[in-house]
């Protein structure tokens, strides 16, 4: 039984190395998912699985999902359960080993599937209770409808965004596109609440369509009868919001309390965000009891 984290398998083999000819290493030719583990289960696995399948199909990567799920189960079973009460599971799928050049290899390649389990770093409780500070970033996301929504391996724009601050008091940076549309944060999606309606940016040209974002849109908001609209949002919409929050599948929902631009805007965490946070927990608890989990 493995008693330390992280633990990593490549194509089901512990501590296996990845070839320098792997197209994921050479070209960022692949996709990834970052999932939260709770008591050996992945509550949002159905949504992670669907996005992974859809992304691989978009990139013409022949993923055998059953093999991936076997690798996940095998790794989880090797790790002592106490480490999996709360942890992070990361999946990386690349096209596999291929030659030089952007053209897809003439011969069939076997995807490389890397499954990792990491210890989780729990955020301060104040992130949930008092809200976080975010910064408006200067870098603008490029438009690419073909890749919009995908969680592909090229995260250079997010790295550039993250270089814009080192202040520990700032938790996240907000990203706009070249047409000044609000898109997302560096590692999370954004929602605005205005006049009791939930608004979130359209992601048809850039950005990552996050799993928690979809969970809130499809499940959580309807469960509490909160109307929702996906639309183009600008800086003025952000400043005029009644409430703002960020979300991802690891930390859930963080209310935004302060937006730093040329001046500081204060947005008090409100009751609607608190209602959605409670709704996420309720729906996650329901999913944990379902039998469709990866390791059920």
Q: Give the second-level CATH assignment, the architecture of the largest domain.
A: Alpha-Beta Barrel
Order of helices and strands: EEHEHHEEHEHEEEEHEHEEEH
Overall structural domain count: 2
Mean pLDDT: 95
Structural class assignment:
alpha+beta
For the secondary structure, the number of strands is 14
- Ranges where pLDDT stays below 50 over 5 or more residues in a row are none
* Through-space gap between termini: 20 Å
Radius of gyration (Å):
20 Å
In short:
By secondary structure, the chain is of the alpha+beta class.
Tell me what the structure shows.
The protein has 296 residues and is α+β, with helices and mostly antiparallel strands. The chain folds into two domains: 113 residues, Aminotransferase class 4, branched-chain amino acid transferase, N-terminal domain (D-amino Acid Aminotransferase, Chain A, domain 1), CATH 3.30.470; 160 residues, D-amino Acid Aminotransferase, Chain A, domain 2 (Alpha-Beta Barrel), CATH 3.20.10.10. It is 27% helix and 29% strand. The protein has eight helices and 14 strands. Strands 6, 7, 8, 9, 10, 11, 12, 13 and 14 form a nine-stranded mixed beta sheet that branches. Strands 2-1-5-4-3 form a five-stranded antiparallel beta sheet. Strand 1 and strand 2 form a beta hairpin. Helix 6 packs across helix 8. The chain is globular. The mean pLDDT is 95.
């Amino acid at each position: 039984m493995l008693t330390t984290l992280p633990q990593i398998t490549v194509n089901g083999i512990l501590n296996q190395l990845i070839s320098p000819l792997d197209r994921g290493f050479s070209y960022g030719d692949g996709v990834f998912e970052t999932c939260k583990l709770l008591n050996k289960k992945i509550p949002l696995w159905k949504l992670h699985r669907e996005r992974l399948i859809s992304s691989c199909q978009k990139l013409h990567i022949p993923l055998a999902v059953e093999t991936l799920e076997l690798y996940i189960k095998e790794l989880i079973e090797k790790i002592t359960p106490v480490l999996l009460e709360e942890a992070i599971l990361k999946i990386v799928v690349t096209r596999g080993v291929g030659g030089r050049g952007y053209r897809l290899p003439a011969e069939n390649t076997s995807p490389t599937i890397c499954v990792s389990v990491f210890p989780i770093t729990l955020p301060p409780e104040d992130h949930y209770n008092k809200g976080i500070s975010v910064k408006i970033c200067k870098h603008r996301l490029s438009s690419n409808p073909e890749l919009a929504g995908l969680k592909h391996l090229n995260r250079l724009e997010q790295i550039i965004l993250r270089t814009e601050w080192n202040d520990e008091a700032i938790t996240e940076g907000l990203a706009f596109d070249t047409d000044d549309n609000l898109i997302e944060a560096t590692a999370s999606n954004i929602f605005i609440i205005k006049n009791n309606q939930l608004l979130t940016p359209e992601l048809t040209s850039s950005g990552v369509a996050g799993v928690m974002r979809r969970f809130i849109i499809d499940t959580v908001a309807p469960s509490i009868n909160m109307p929702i609209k996906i639309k183009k949002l600008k800086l003025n919409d952000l400043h005029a919001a009644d409430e703002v929050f960020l979300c991802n599948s690891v930390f859930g929902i963080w209310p935004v309390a302060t937006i730093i631009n040329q001046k500081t805007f204060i947005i008090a965490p409100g009751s609607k965000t608190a209602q959605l946070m409670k709704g996420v927990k309720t729906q996650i608890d329901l999913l944990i009891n379902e039998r469709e989990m990866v390791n059920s």
